[in-house]
Amino acid sequence: MSLLLGPMSKHLPGHKELTSHKEIIKCKDVDKIYIPLAMGTALLEKKVSEGDYVKVGTVVALRNDHFYVPVFSSVSGVVKGFEKRMTSSTKMAEHIVIENDFKYVVEDLTTLSEDASKEEVVNFIKEKGIVGCGGAGFPTYFKFVKTDGCQTLLINAVECEPYLTSDYLNMKENLEDMVLGIKTLFRISGASTCKIAIKKTKKEFIERIKELFKNETNIEVVGVSDVYPMGWERTLVYEVLKKRYDKLPIEAGCIVSNVTTAIKTAQAMRTGLPIVEKIVTVSGDGIKSPCNVLVRVGTPVSHLVELCQGYTTENIQLIAGGPMMGNAITNDNFVITASDNGLTVLKYQEVKSMACLRCGACVDHCPSAIMPVNINNAEKTKNVDRLLKLNVNACIECGMCTYVCPSKLDVTEGVRRAKRFLALKGKK
Amino acid sequence: MKFVFKPSPNYRDKKSTQSIIFELTLGLLVIYAFGLYNSFKLGSQYGINAIVLLIVSVVVSFLSEFAYAKLRKLDPIQFFKTSFPWVTPLILVLMVPVNTSAYAVGASTFIGVVFAKLVFGGFGQNIFNPAGVGRALVFSSFSSAVVTDLVTSATPTASFASAGWIMQADLFETFIAQFGGLTNMFLGNYPGTLGETSALLIMLVGIVLIIRNVIDYRIPLVYLGTIFASATVIALVRNTGMYYPLFHILTGGAMFGAFFMLTDPVTNPTSITGRILFAMGSGFITVLIRVLANLPEGVLFSILIMNMLTPAIDRALEGNQIKKLKTNMMAVISLAVIGLVTIGFSSTTLEAKEIKIAGGTTDTSSLSFSETMKVMDDYAKYDAKIVRVEGNTYTVEAKGYGLLEGDASHFDYVKNVFEIVIEDQKVVSVKFVTFGDTPGIGDKVDDTYLSIYEGLSLEDEVDALSSATFTSKSVVAAVSLALQEAGK
Ligand code: SF4
Ligand code: SF4
Asked: pLDDT (tens digit, 0 to 9) for every residue of chain A, 428 residues total?
């Protein structure tokens, strides 16, 4: 049937070699860390006030809307106050300022044994604030609360955004934690098989991972095509299981979890520590020495840039995340949070756009199978009915339509405008 | 340090509309080069004309777009970079017969570029394929101009059209032998337009462009597939033999249309289902125009008709393509079934035109297949003139089929000169003194053919030789004049 569908994905030049073979370097600890009181668009409750003394692992803020996510201090020291800064999702938000006393006094932390029950694990993940590390920051516990009908646990180790290699290095550096994390998530998912999806092109690495799981008959490693957005749940579920679903992967009998999330879970179980450090890729042609950096959560990005020897040119784009879905941010003061995994620094190149060729490349490649060019046209005429029919809200803002557009139009932005317009009209 | 903000993504594919058009242009130039080579093989005057046509067309297109840019107060050079004024002329010239007048091509370019492209707002906005519109104009407005008439009447498509688009296999063999057989048609060694003749070359260039992702493979595949399937249905219903579908896809610019006209992204639908419906619809219309309207030019008009339907197709298919997959598939299947059934029914109405054999003096079955002409007909337009009369030998000259070399803006025709011997108001013999016609076309008119005139009088009818209609008419004109002269 897919005769009538385009590829809905595309191979992108990954430039992963810039950082994938380099050692991870540790970012020096900074005097002050900043914890944003925002998570994407959601606001957080503060749990500390000025003058409080906090330790590594102290809860300093809490997300408590339809999700429950505690946020922790990554250093010990005194809360100096609050400051408005820009976040990595381009929002202005208050940040908790914590002065580092460089003692790293650790909060009295609970660990979890490897054979803890499902409830214990889910609760543990929830209390440790483990969020999806694929970039979206979706709280991990939520996926494992209801696991009825789950047959397959899919471990997403695809890392399809260009330039980013932090997942890959994280796996390579923490093989044991990865094994423990995957086994634990597999156990609590209640699934009968676990599939670890890695890009086909990483042949040797696939062999190494297979070797690690050679005694586990239910855990297999599958090579998936090196295309974007293979890391997106729908694309991945279709590639591995050939199934499509309406809202959540569980409808297709599976749960998808990022590999770094699994590693972080295992690390928390062993040490009791929540996510206080992250491996972050700093790459792109705009940075002198691209590499992966191990950094404390709350560190301003300027320190990472410095560690990588600065920018290569005057006009650059600093992107939180990969170049496809990450936001370009107009200063380097924003901080790394638990869900950040990369910075892309690109030399700015002006693009000249021209009239739409009507080539349909955006339609053929849209992973959501909607029609970006038609949406752009309908948006111009503000036609609500037509936009609804075009299923605008299925767009995941993956950026594919802009990427492929030969006329260099900002197609994705047009779709976003359409989404905002519909939201304004109260149509979801 | 400057941090530039642009909404995500901040990553772009290398491929651009400019690079797509550039590769397309290269492809078209390869085909043009072959056309040029073919034209020079016909005679240097044709080769030169082919060059003149392209120059005239390109100049007209650039001038029109220049004026448009000025009118809209745009920098013309920048405008050209995103308007690609050379593409329409290139396609147009490839679609016209080698000896079309530069005037006709210039006018069609103007109409195509101005009325099919610029008035819509320029590149990307047009509904119709500009080259297609220009080409249609050549047919409709300049068809009476002798120049174009000559060559269209000499192409396999036109000849086949005049035979009623149906022919039994054994007859077909002799028919197609005139053009060197189907294999030759595949290779492109036969009279036709500049760029449409070599199916092989068009396919090769097309495949390269498909691999380079410049054109969507589905369009030529579905279009040619539809024509092939439709023609197969006709072949089965009418029991013509399997040559029939092959002939349909090899002739009348179907190949060129499939790879270079229908694939024009601006004028075809944006979704895959849309493009499939578009190509399939076009294929059915091509065959229907051919067999029902008995016209040679199905390809061109089918493309223009489908261009017109493109916006409607696009709108009808809007939605989530996964959710609409079933309805889309149904649409494709329904169109295929309805189309084939329609074709099957309409094929029963097809009538093979009878072929009269004149004089009975020669084996004309290998020669005929075109309209019958009365010797009495008025052939004044062939400028027949008595040059000399010596006893009962009349030397007559008449307009030939070739063009004279030289001034491109004003063509004159070569003359055929005949020596005709008449006794008792009957032709005794016809001989060429000077033969000015196109090699490969007119030279089918040889002694065997000329011998059918022996014994004819003014009241008789003869067959024009389809591959050389014009030359035959030239002979008839000369004979007719000689007979009249002898009757005085
Ligand atoms: S950004 Fe939205 S519309 Fe564009 S390709 Fe991605 S999902 Fe489709
Ligand atoms: S990819 Fe760009 S040029 Fe092609 S149809 Fe979409 S918007 Fe138009």
From this structure: 478 999 999 999 999 999 999 999 999 899 999 999 998 888 899 999 999 999 999 999 999 888 899 999 999 999 999 999 998 888 899 999 999 999 999 988 888 988 889 999 999 999 998 987 655 668 889 889 888 889 999 999 999 999 999 999 999 999 999 999 999 999 999 999 999 999 999 999 999 999 999 888 999 999 999 999 998 999 999 999 999 998 889 999 999 999 989 999 999 999 999 999 999 999 999 999 999 999 999 999 999 999 999 999 999 999 999 999 998 999 889 999 988 889 999 999 989 999 999 999 999 999 999 999 999 999 999 999 999 999 999 999 999 999 999 999 999 999 999 999 999 987 65
* Residue A138 φ/ψ region, left for φ over 0, alpha for ψ in the -120 to 50 degree band, beta for the rest: beta
| B9 cis-preceded (ω within 30 degrees of 0) | yes
Would the CB atoms of B320 and A357 count as touching at under 8 Å? no
Residues contacting residue A391 through CB under 8 Å, at least 6 positions apart: A368, A370, B319, B320, B323
Q: How far apart are CA A91 and CA A93, in angstroms?
A: 6
- Report the domain count for chain A: 2
* Residue ranges making up the domain that contains B182: 153-355
Which tokens is A61 given?
Answer: 């803020």
Ligand nearest A413 Cα, by number?
Answer: 1
Assess whether the C-beta atom of A371 lies below 6 angstroms from ligand 1: no
Shortest CA distance to B458 belongs to which of B420, B439, B486?
Answer: B486
CATH number, domain at A78?
A: 3.40.50.11540
Cβ–Cβ gap B325/A1 under 8 Å: yes
String of DSSP letters for A329-341: ES-S--B--TT--
Residue A129, classed as helix, strand or coil, is coil
A348 Cα: distance to centroid of ligand 1 (angstroms): 23
Q: Domain for residue A326, yes or no?
A: no
Containing domain of residue A99, as a range?
30-275
Residue A417's closest chain B neighbor by CA? B7
Cα B239 to averaged position of ligand 2 atoms, centre (Å): 46
Q: CB A403 to CB B82 under 8 A?
A: no
Residues 251-290 of B with CB under 8 A from A: 265-276
Chain A with chain B: Cβ pairs closer than 8 A: 166
Cα of A406 vs centre of ligand 2, distance in Å, is 7
**Does the Cβ of A396 fall within 6 Å of ligand 1?**
yes
Q: Please name the residue whose Cα sits nearest to atom 8 of ligand 1.
A: A366
Atom of ligand 2 nearest to the CA of A408: 2
